[in-house]
Amino acid sequence: MTLHHVRRGTGAPLLLVHGLGAGWRSWAPLIDGLAAEREVVAVDLPGFGQSAPLAELSIASLADAVADFIEEQGLGGVATAGQSMGARIVLELARRGVGGDTVALDPGGFWTDRELALFGATLRPSIALVRLLRGALPSLLATRAGRTALLAQLSARPWALDADTVLPDVLGLADAPATDAAMDALTKGPKQKGAPAGTVPGRVTIGWGRRDRVTLPRQAERAARAYPDAELHWFEKCGHFPQWDAPDEAVRLILDRTS
């Protein structure tokens, strides 16, 4: 499978891997800042954006698809950055020895059984709601009240966000063919395995929002224990999407921690 992708900028390549939502467009708030210094390669995972879905989706098969893309594009040793499910994928690639420096923003996979049940019990109804409201989403998200009501789980300050920033990801949750299969992979599949010290191919940085209500902040310490070579970075006053709540800080972190 050839993943749909976009390239922006010049310099050392940087591969971006999104989470649930809009595909590569989830990175739109960061791409210009990253592309000012790097060649940014942003993919649509299978079943998101313009990439065809997989017959069987799991975190492992998504990581396989990205690893195949890296080989196909001649990007061996490429630095990677991911968010949410995409952060879990880039950590999995690092665990396998694929890629180079890695930045993982609010990754899934480090929850307890109880936290995982809460994740599924809260996010699945949110997805059902945005599907129900699909036609009205542009007008709802154009208001502070609508953003606050719909995005409180995802953002520390949803009322302050720009509607054009959040609309693609919310529409992606409703429309992407792989949303339900990805939720099953996250909630029914295995948790994320770690990598012993000295086994990852480059620097690993794990970024976490202090106000993340999707992957809870206490999970960050588990992720850091699973990846003992990792450096942990906290985004203050930030929810699950640093590209929404702290875009400038996220750009600087990714650029500073990859080469």
Residue-averaged pLDDT: 97
Q: From the alpha-carbon coordinates, what is the Rg to the nearest angstrom? A: 17 Å
What fraction strand?
Answer: 5-15%
Assign an overall shape. globular
- Placed side by side, the strands forming the largest sheet appear as 1-3-2-4-5-6-7
Distance between the termini: 27 Å
Low-confidence stretches: none
Biggest sheet overview: 7 strands, mixed
- Structural class of the secondary structure composition? alpha/beta
Helix content: 40-55%
Q: How many β-strands, per DSSP?
A: 7
Tally of contiguous helical segments: 11
Oligomer: single chain
The ordered string of helix (H) and strand (E) elements is EEHEHEHEHHHHHEHEHH
Structure description:
- 43% of the residues lie in helices and 13% in strands.
- The chain is an alpha/beta fold.
- The longest helix is centred in the middle third of the chain and has 20 residues, at 113-132.
- The chain has 11 helices and 7 strands.
- The relative contact order is 0.18.
Features:
7-stranded mixed sheet; alpha/beta; single chain; 259 residues; 13% strand; 7 strands
Offer a quick outline of the entry.
The protein is built from eleven helices and seven strands. The protein has helices at residues 28-35, 59-72, 85-96, 113-132, 137-141, 144-151, 163-175, 179-188, 219-226, 242-245, 247-256, and strands at residues 5-8, 13-17, 39-43, 79-83, 102-105, 204-209, 231-235. β6 (204-209), α9 and β7 (231-235) form a beta-alpha-beta unit.
